[in-house]
Write the structure tokens for this entry.
Amino acid sequence: MHSGSFRDKTFSFFVYFTLSILGFATFYPFWNAAVISFNSGTDTVLGGITFWPRDFTLANYQVVFEDRRLVSAFIITVLRTAIGTSLSILATAIFAYGMSRKELVGRKFYMVFCVITMYFSGGLIPYFLLIRELGMMNTFWVMVIPGLISVWNMIIFRTFFLGLPAGLSESATIDGCSNFGILFRIVLPLSGPVIATLSLFTAINHWNDWFAPGIFISNADLLPIQTKLQQILNSNIMSQQMSQMDSAAAGHLQNMKTVTTKSLTMATMMVATAPIIMVYPFIQKYFVKGVLIGSIKE
Amino acid sequence: MNNRGTTRRFFRQWDLQIMVVPAILFIFIFSYIPMYGVLMAFQDYSIFKGFFDSSWVGFRHFEMFFNAPEFGQIMRNTIVIGLLKLCIGFPAPILLALLLNEVRKMAFKRIVQTISYLPHFLSWVIVSGFAMSLLSVDNGSINMLLQKLHLTDSAINFLSLPKYFWSILITTNVWKEIGFGSIVYLAAITGIDPHLYEAASIDGASRFRQIYLITLPMITPVVIIFMILAIGDFLNAGFEDILLLAPNPSLRDVSDVLDTYVYRIGIQNNRFSYATAAGLFKAVISIGLLTTANFIARKSNNSLW
């Protein structure tokens, strides 16, 4: 079919070459960070660590997992992601089901009420003061409750529910099923793909959020791993600025001779990323579909 | 009469309303109350007096903001970074989609796609961590490479020199989002009738000409919709990325944009009214930009609304 003229062959070469470079450039930062996290810190300082660990060690991870504060930050993150995602998906799905029923009184008004919030918002400061007024500062729930209802997810759920055959719920009503019954026994069991997609995006948002806990939580024991990591990176760059040297000397961990701030940071980063990288192969087929659902708006 | 009928229907479908009304109340609290709170941009808001007892001062905070010594710099940074993201960050996923579409070896295509989507799922904290590691003065990979190629004699402290900041910011943004952004365009390309390409290649059009004459025109509607969204987002030059890549004040001359300024002045320095005024100024211009972009797009029948 493709006769393969010289011009087209050069073109093909250009395509494969560019994409290979791009793929490499995307992959290398992960790989290099992982390699450094498995290399002894004092050896990394000597330089030249690129593709393989030179002085393989698990000491960095050992320190991370022995650090009570990092472990508890990790647990907080897991809890927050699990609780936040399940509550938010449940609440949003119930809301969306109500909004998908044509007989709902006030349906149009509710919809406009919701859509307005997608274009206008009060901005950071009034939101910050509201959270404070509500007494949610420094609580675990500040990471769960404000994100409970997502208008965006509601619209996607609703669009999906509207696409289900109307006969299903009609016959269920005739059999005496209530609206809650229809939602939980018929609609939700049929919504596997959309629940999976939206749960995935919600979970990733919870997992990656560092800013909200950063401004709303001051109790160090409640901070999730991303916020902790941000503080570590931040203090690293500061100390680097001051001494222009790797802050191995700053060591609050003199007992672990092979560990440096850099190798420790890399190990922490890997721990904070590992869950995402591990579920990634399983979720890939869902999110492509999810992006396409999400980009269609009425 | 009609009203009473509606009320009666409302109460008869109490089970449906119970699904909706709490969520509406929730949205009222977390979205509408902050909108109302924007009015404190026109007050001398004091946390002791609260919103209702603070005194009204009209546009004073806006005037203070426009006359602030850093105003010019913040506007310049916001516009430059916004433009860079629009001119480089926006077309990059389209280019990637076009390239991926030319790949005939399915295994290769799948590998590149899988790798390129992944960074989207990382937090900015991790991405900034990668950037710091690669660009670090002591044995960061980039500095090692530059020295090995004899392009520089000594390591460059990329992350604390203002002249590199914009390039680093744009590169990391493209790195993170190029693959994920390409998904929609790839889907649009997949929808193109393959007969068009066959006809074109029989007529002797090169692969490059086929992209130019078939693929690009066919995905234009999608491109325009995303373009409108990108323009509406123009003043959101960046927030998380800038906070994380420029944590130290030495970069503030090139890194401070409207959002980071509001955060710094409002949350860190507790000047609530002043910061709200700056935030409101941004919101008003953003809405204007979005409306204008949509108006232009409507002329070509591709509008959002």
Q: What stands out?
A: DSSP finds 16 helices and two strands in chain B.
